[in-house]
Amino acid sequence: MIGIFGGTFDPVHYGHLRAVIEVGEIFGLEQVRLIPNKTPPHRLEPSASASMRLEMLQLAACTLSNVVIDTRELDREGPSYMVDTLSSLRGDFPERPLLLFVGSDAFNGLTTWHRWRELFDHAHIVVMTRPGSSARPENDFWDVLQVFEAGDLARYKAGKLFFQPITQLDISASAIRKMIAEKRDPRFLLPDAVLDYIHSHHLYQNA
Ligand SMILES: Nc1ncnc2c1ncn2[C@@H]1O[C@H](COP(=O)(O)OP(=O)(O)OP(=O)(O)O)[C@@H](O)[C@H]1O
Ligand SMILES: O=C(O)c1ccc[n+]([C@@H]2O[C@H](COP(=O)([O-])O)[C@@H](O)[C@H]2O)c1
Fold first, then answer.
1. Which of 137, 148, 159, 192 is buried deepest, with most CB atoms within 10 A?
2. Is residue 101 assigned to a domain?
3. CA distance linking residue 38 with residue 12, whole number of Å
4. pLDDT at 4 exceeding the cut of 60
């Protein structure tokens, strides 16, 4: 099974990294693909450029095993729609179960994503429960798709919805950007190498 973890990563932090390790272990994933977006469809333009967000991700993930940084969204023009990304990954991995991981905050907006129903044609969706955000908006569709045994994800290539609690780390990129703009110290919320990069490139000086 292959894990897919998309994000803006502006910047990457320990909430992301801890989640990647935990889902890799829990589901016995052969690899987790970290996919930074180029043009996020549902939010303002990121503060750091795509190439800087990628460099920070590389610094953060270089010690993780079975993690691949996948640049297909950076290589594509236009909005970084996840349905296009999953369709392209399905082409690369025709026979493997694909697990798209989203935090509960991202899941709560899922029905506003571009062609969202088609996401399930290509992958399962695993919702990682996250502090400050309860993970189940009203939607009859979810009852049809939800499975309660992680083993069901391995039996099908796509199409199931699963909720997975993970260690709760109340860390967000927006809070880190704000701390830096306010000249506060965000150490231990993100890797030192990423923080050094942020300081040396004078990122996030303005909130
Ligand atoms: N602390 C966390 N624990 C679990 N999942 C997280 C955490 N932070 C982010 N995620 C998830 O990682 C994915 C990418 O998130 P993103 O890169 O937007 O980070 P963010 O911290 O949510 O950023 P921002 O604060 O700018 O919105 C999303 O699915 C999000 O829900
Ligand atoms: O495809 C969409 O319409 C879509 C809408 C909102 C978010 N996404 C993707 O979902 C992932 C998490 O989004 P975010 O905003 O929490 O970084 C990231 O890979 C985004 O590109 C995708």
1. 159
2. yes
3. 14
4. yes
Q: Which ligand sits closest to the CA of 80?
A: 2
Task: Work out how many domains the chain is built from and give that number.
Answer: 1
* Mean pLDDT for the chain overall: 94
Q: What average pLDDT does the segment 176-194 reach?
A: 98
Asked whether residue 106 is domain-assigned, the answer is: yes
Question: From the alpha carbon of 41, which atom of ligand 2 is closest?
Answer: 5
Ligand 1 center from residue 59 Cα (angstroms) = 18
Ligand 2 near 40 CB (within 6 A): yes
Residue range of the domain that includes 62: 2-170
80 touches ligand 2 (CB under 6 Å): yes
CB 60 within 8 A of CB 189: no
Residue 171: count of CB within 10 angstroms of its CB:
19
Question: Do residues 190 and 13 make contact, with C-beta atoms less than 8 angstroms apart?
Answer: yes
Q: What is the CATH classification number for the domain harbouring 73?
A: 3.40.50.620
Decide if pLDDT at 29 tops 90.
Answer: yes
* Sequence-distant contacts of 71-77: CB under 8 A, at least 24 apart: 71/36, 72/35, 73/6, 73/35, 73/36, 73/37, 73/38, 74/36, 74/38, 74/50, 76/38
Count of Cβ atoms closer than 10 Å to residue 52 Cβ: 17
Model confidence at 141, pLDDT cuts 50, 70, 90, reads confident
Closest CA to 16 of 173, 182, 175, 195: 173
